[in-house]
Amino acid sequence: MRNAESVKRLNMCGRYALYDTSKSEFKIAHNLVGQNYNITPSASVPVVINNDQVKLVSWTFKVPWADKLNIINTRSETLETKKVFQNAKRCIFIANGYFEWLRQDKVKIPYYHTFKDQMMYFGGIFNDHGACIVTRQSYPMKIEVHHRQPVILQYNDFESWFASEHDYTCEHSQDMDIFKVTSKVNSPKNNAPDNIERIESE
């Protein structure tokens, strides 16, 4: 059992994986996906923008009047009130899973979050300059890694998300499989399948 004083939850980290869309409920062109086991901010990523239409966007939300503002995720609690998002449109990120880190003493420990038998979709927003992921307070999980998580949608949530009628609940995310993975994923340069292989905890 970890010493609570030696464990620190890091700021919500921006990394996820997308390498297989065979479980998707709609068709996604392979050239929009590739095999990415360590997607980082500013990467060109596929998002659903409506009616199962998929396009590539930069994973960093920007606005022309604030050059230094680079947003990769934003809180659902303030999404409707922040000026920076007043002209944003809804989108949905497509993923197989995402990474979060715990800092134990001086070591960052990565954990992969995924579903065993389904795709993962993150609620998002976008404009002409890029996109970001919408987050919420984390549900209780089998392994507590971070106090925030993406708003994780199911395919039948798409319509309400695009209509801005979704209430940001995603209780099914409690079914995620969460496990420790290699520290190689800490480096954005490492983009290989072993980034998502389970490492048994001691």
Structural commentary:
By secondary structure, the protein is an all-beta fold. It has a single domain (4-196), classed as hypothetical protein yedk fold (Alpha-Beta Complex). Helix content is 2%, strand content 41%. The protein is built from one helix and 16 strands. The protein has one helix at residues 158-162; strands at 7-9, 16-18, 36-39, 44-50, 53-58, 61-63, 66-71, 73-75, 89-95, 97-104, 107-114, 120-127, 130-137, 148-150, 152-153, 177-180. The chain is globular and about 45 Å long. Mean pLDDT is 88; it is low at 1-11.
CATH topology, by name, is: hypothetical protein yedk fold
User: What shape does the CA trace take?
Assistant: globular
Mean pLDDT: 88
What would CATH call the homologous superfamily?
SOS response associated peptidase-like
Class in CATH?
A: Alpha Beta
Indicate the multimeric state.
single chain
Largest sheet properties: 8 strands, mixed
If classified by CATH, what would the architecture be? Alpha-Beta Complex
Following the backbone from N to C, one meets helices and strands in this order, namely EEEEEEEEEEEEEEEHE
Provide a quick synopsis of the model.
The protein has one helix at about 160; strands at about 5-10, 15-20, 35-40, 45-50, 55-60, 60-65, 65-70, 75, 90-95, 95-105, 105-115, 120-125, 130-135, 150, 150-155, 175-180. The protein is mostly beta strands.
Q: What's the SSE blueprint?
A:
Blueprint: E1 7-9, E2 16-18, E3 36-39, E4 44-50, E5 53-58, E6 61-63, E7 66-71, E8 73-75, E9 89-95, E10 97-104, E11 107-114, E12 120-127, E13 130-137, E14 148-150, E15 152-153, H1 158-162, E16 177-180
Parallel strand pairs: 8-13
Antiparallel strand pairs: 1-10, 2-3, 2-10, 4-5, 4-9, 6-7, 9-12, 10-11, 11-16, 12-13, 12-15, 13-14
